[in-house]
Amino acid sequence: MLLSTLFAGQPDIEISGITLDSRTVRPGYMFFCIEGTELDGHKFAGKAAEAGAAAIVCSKPVTKVSGVTCIQVCDTSVELNRVSDLFFDRPSRRMTVFGATGTNGKSTMTSIISDIYSAYKPCGYMGTIAIRYGGFSRVPNLTTPDPVETHANLKEMLDHGMQAVAMEVSSQGLDRGRVDSVDFDCAVFTNLTHDHLDYHKTMENYFDAKKRLFRNLRPDAVAVLNADDAISIEGLKECCPCRYVTYGTDQGETSVDENGYPVSGSRCRSGTAETIDYFAENIRLKADGTEFTLCHKGKRYPVATNLAALYNIYNLLGAIAAMHECGMPLEQMIPLLADIPQVDGRMERIDEGQDFTVIVDYAHTPDGYEKIFSYALEITRESGGKIYAVFGCPGKRDTDKRPVMGEIAGRCADEVVITSQDPRDSEPAEIAKDILKGVEKNNCRHSFIEDREAAIEKGIRLAGPGDVVLALGKGSESYMYYEEGRRPWITDAEAARQALRKLAEE
Fold first, then answer.
1. For the CA atoms of 395, 169, 268, 473, what is the dihedral angle to 10 degrees?
2. I need a surface site. Which of 176, 227, 406, 482 has the fewest CB within 10 A?
3. Dihedral, CA of residue 108, residue 111, residue 117 and residue 123, to nearest 10
4. How many CB atoms neighbour CB 65 within 10 A?
5. Of the candidates 117, 234, 230, which has an alpha carbon nearest to the alpha carbon of residue 167?
6. pLDDT at res. 79
7. What secondary structure letter does DSSP report for 30?
8. pTM for the whole structure
């Protein structure tokens, strides 16, 4: 694409690619100098020029190099969004784009949309688990990548026949403006609880970042809001420039305190089938699925799904509302909900013929822990079994929630095994000490095994008939973060399978 097409008044130079990473510059590329939280791209303008950049976009003066066009703008991030969209021929404008944000449930909700909506229109998925469309899948770099990668992914999906895409949208991605130029048709909110305060500092800042997705919606888009999430619903209604619909249940959501932590055992029912647009009543939770009645516009639809646990019914309701508001008939959709494909690392049951339950789940927040442990308690209430939990907490991330999560695990589990979980440059043993401050409040049996694979094996070896083993925090992730960056990890699911097979052979 010509530089003059991307920036009016500039020379007719062919631009072969765009990037904000000087290490990826190739001859003919346009390099954007982005000021990040740790690095300033202006310092790498010279390296970009040496690598063959045809143009450099900056917001402050850089050393000019012969043959390289320098374009100074007010805000390079704004221009990066605009140019990325234009360079890849505005792919989001030619697709139905769903965006989901909130603390928990984004991966499950967007995966459901991608799988079910594809029966109506071919729908890709972009988020924490993968970049996926059709039969293709690859590991993502970030939940919400930079504008160049985002629009490149959308163009790739469009070129391979996708007519829609379901995207997870993280608070950091929103705060950094990574999706400001994506044309969303539908934005869905899951819930708001304590997370990422190492980055946002306060719950107000965190929520304000989430609101950005809704503020940027065009007038003819639609917002889908969780009516039972008392902490977010009114603020989101106020900031929507478009129409909105709500979803909720006859059981209500768990409420949170002023710090965004879930209040154990609390419920907040906000409305009825007459006041909430997509309402689930007569919910019958089972170990391997759920039945309920969906109420919408005066009609009632019986729903049977293989999704288990109340929090997954919220994820499902949000997905149902989003898909229906974007054209998919409920009559076409509801039969498909009986057999929703397993979402990798989300409430994933690992079955090797053992007489106890093993679940791998991405739960990594206090609210996520309250929900997954509540489900485990429901299962063991029927079986009379015990709960064993294997988990850790990340290094350099939101240290305040470590003892809170330890307290929840210690209160609900019969024994916990603390282990490594993306330690980065922190010592896993020091992270474990923070977690154990909460665990020990409940006199729960505990141990620390730094090697995650060995820790998962111990949790499995502790279990007997009717028990539940939870491996939490990593989900389907196939890497671990250490000081030098990512290292491969076999995944919690594979670690559990290997331990179960080893146990069966003994």
1. -30
2. 482
3. 150
4. 15
5. 117
6. 96
7. E
8. 0.88
Only one residue has tokens 């923070």, namely: 434
What tokens were used for 35?
């000021």
**Phi/psi of residue 382, each to 5°?**
-80, -40
Count of beta carbons in the 10 Å neighbourhood of residue 287: 13
User: What residues pair up with 291 in beta bridges, in sequence order?
Assistant: 284, 304
In terms of residues, how long is the chain? 506
**How many beta carbons lie within 10 A of that of residue 203, not counting itself?**
18
What is the DSSP pairing of strand 96-101 with strand 348-349? Answer: unpaired
Residues in a beta bridge with 445: 415
CA–CA separation, 436 vs 277, rounded Å?
Answer: 43
Task: Please check whether residue 7 is in contact with residue 76, taking contact to mean a CB–CB distance below 8 angstroms.
Answer: no
Tokens of 187: 């934005």
Residue ranges in the chain whose pLDDT is less than 50: none
pLDDT at 287: 81
Q: What is the rounded CA–CA span in Å between residue 278 and residue 273? A: 7
Round to whole Å and give the CA distance between 108 and 96.
Answer: 19
Are the beta carbons of 165 and 91 closer than 8 angstroms? no
Query: What pLDDT, on a 0 to 100 scale, did the predictor assign at position 80?
Result: 96
Q: CA angle, corner 327, sides to 324 and 332, nearest 5?
A: 65
